[in-house]
Amino acid sequence: LQIQFANMEDKQEFSKYPTKAGRRSLSRSVSQSSTDSYSSAASYTDSSDDETSPRDKTQVNTHGSSDFCVKNIKQAEFGRREIEIAEQDMSALISLRKRAQGEKPLAGANIVGCTHITAQTAVLIETLVALGAQCRWTACNIYSTQNEVAAALAETGVPVFAWKGESEDDFWWCIDRCVNMDGWQANMVLDDGGDLTHWVYKKYPSVFKKVRGIVEESVTGVHRLYQLSKAGKLCVPAMNVNDSVTKQKFDNLYCCRESILDGLKRTTDIMFGGKQVVVCGYGEVGKGCCTALKALGAIVCVTEIDPICALQACMDGFKVVKLSEVIRQMDVVITCTGNKNVVTREQLDRMKNGCIVCNMGHYNTEIDVASLRSPELTWERVRSQVDHIIWPDGKRVVLLAEVIFKMHLPTLMSEMENEDVYCGILNPVLNLRGTCALVSQGRLLNLSCSTVPTFVLSITATTQVGSVVASPPVAVLLPVVIQPFSALQALALIELFNAPVGRYKQDVYLLPKKMGEPLFFRIHCCSFWGDGIPDCVDVSSLSSDEYVASLHLPIFDAHLTELSDEQAKYMGLNKNGPFKPNYYR
């Protein structure tokens, strides 16, 4: 057996362990550190509580810059390999980067971002930089950051402030460091959940005097933007990417359909066949979860407040119930409503042993995790991101991705003058046989405890980039999907940043069906078809959603059928599109 070492330091370290047992110990430690981002569900060990906080470390990248705060800058090389793997499944976004970097449609854009920091979002961030933007970035969730990816971004010169397992205080400190930088003024905001937007509104309202627009990608964040708009407090334009067609259909539905299974398997090793599962909410996320679980043999029922969604669930073969009436029989409880107190303490007390409760919404507020920190309940750390919560009668709740949320939440809520606005720090509840298990402490399960499909994120990111390029003050709805999702983010940013003054008011918008800048279509035509655009394709006629979708069809070797003139006239359509009306969602 020949072992190849990445560098001499690894070889010297390995030589210190002459015995097989010693080398196995070293191998485990290397494995745990080098795959840190994925250890939440697989590792039985955890970082030492006495480990130095990244905030207390002095780190410098190879360019001499210290304007970042990550777990370990030495993980940059490993993170770069992760990013390169993601790029292989994000070809449309990479093509956009290569073709458009000469045009620099984001030159002059100073983008402050608060999203999940993963290999996929790193591809988006580096695309924004290639298109001319300067970026500062932080995480929207304290558990979803891939430490090695954050290090790789910091190594390239992107100021990143994030690491996996932040405390609540760390979370807000990182956001503050991104925004509050001498000599740098943000003029675009890319947010996921609204925490960055609200922090700036409360702490640095003067920043919005120069901000051209906000791009928001989550249900929760969009809801908060509409609250600001209704109260007359939204002083810049905003784009709602979440409600775009591609985001709803691809990211919310297809992405969650795969990642819910991945997250549950990694955290609990559950076998789904025959399990009683209740999914709270039958929106696009709920539909994806139900479809996946049913396919593996689970017996799925749904809770809903909306009669239309409830009827859809019935027509899809799911029984619609009230949670309080079935909670005792359920093996798994999944929340995906975007609301608060969906699973209450009273319902947690009534769960059967082995019930798994997890959250697929953005915040931890869907599950009443705070009520579990009561004197009569005992908490035991079992392994990385797994805690047992023990009832007096011996029943156990297993809490994954346990969070330190005892710090400033009440204070923060009062500062934000809205008890319905919560920071994106907590997420899921899971349960093992003989126990009631809380996964990721009610935090977002698929990003806290596993990963999500790269292809879908590409769609969303492309949309977000488009919105940045065209904006005045307003909120806009953008199309999103993973590879397609990245595409949506890109389009939204480009649209907002480059929009002429007056196009968008101080309100929340959906990404326009037709982009206003010819540059946008020229760039994207070239990025997808190169110099030879097919005669049958008039890119300028496509809607933004249709355009993003078209960018990703070649990956599947998909070929569109072209309408004849007679067919187009009969349907009342332009034969080259758009094919969906403005009201289609």
From TrEMBL:
Highest taxon of source: Eukaryota
Q: Where is the composition biased (Low complexity)?
A: 27-46
Keywords of the record = NAD, One-carbon metabolism
Tell me which residues make up the S-adenosyl-L-homocysteine hydrolase NAD binding domain.
252-452
**Which residues lie within the region annotated Disordered?**
1-64
InterPro entries per the UniProt record, alphabetical: Adenosylhomocyst_ase-like_sf, Adenosylhomocysteinase-like, Ado_hCys_hydrolase_NAD-bd, NAD(P)-bd_dom_sf, S-Ado-L-homoCys_hydrolase_CS
Pfam families hit by this protein: AdoHcyase (PF05221), AdoHcyase_NAD (PF00670)
GO terms of biological process kind: one-carbon metabolic process; S-adenosylmethionine cycle
What cellular component GO annotations does this protein have? Answer: cytosol
Q: Which cofactor does it need?
A: NAD(+)
Would you identify the family this protein belongs to, as annotated? Belongs to the adenosylhomocysteinase family.
Q: What name does UniProt use for this protein?
A: (spotted green pufferfish) hypothetical protein
**Which source organism?**
Tetraodon nigroviridis
> Upper taxonomic classification of the species?
Eukaryota, Metazoa, Chordata, Craniata, Vertebrata
